What does this fold into?
Amino acid sequence: DAGVIQSPRHEVTEMGQEVTLRCKPISGHDYLFWYRQTMMRGLELLIYFNNNVPIDDSGMPEDRFSAKMPNASFSTLKIQPSEPRDSAVYFCASSDLGAHNYGYTFGSGTRLTVV
Amino acid sequence: AQSVTQLGSHVSVSEGALVLLRCNYSSSVPPYLFWYVQYPNQGLQLLLKYTSAATLVKGINGFEAEFKKSETSFHLTKPSAHMSDAAEYFCAVSYFGNEKLTFGTGTRLTIIP
It folds into this structure.
């Protein structure tokens, strides 16, 4: 298994532009999580899905952020319009039923820089 | 609500010395506890987990952790540090029926040659 695959690895964009981050979870995993990591706030859960359905999006910072999971093998996190304070590393993670037993598998992350 | 507190944002140890990274949890129900490691420019990798079986848990790379309910702790240890252990370590908690992991703020481990 190739693990959780995120693209792109690095993204530099100008303020006001739309940014789309992509994630392919491990095949067979029912849960998908989007985290944001910054020096100031550490690891923050933004949203998670179960069987492609958003379960908890209380961590999404504001309406500029949206996430979708159109099928079991693909998810996107979109920021529109982007702002410099959105600069962070965004991680996608997946797990099967029983994450409390097995934990998550994380992708390598997308480092977003908004200038 | 459950949470974890990691004492010490930075820890330095000499190569060959004992590694001790501290984690205390707060949970109103029996917790599931995890330690993750993050190497530079990489994602988080699961080191070990406690899921209410044995209180002493062994993980990868020679690390282990002991669940102590009386102290609400889940400290991570390794008898002899290697240079390759330099990384950031995160403690995390969840509980049965909740798939969300709540992470601590992390401890950066530096190994002194």
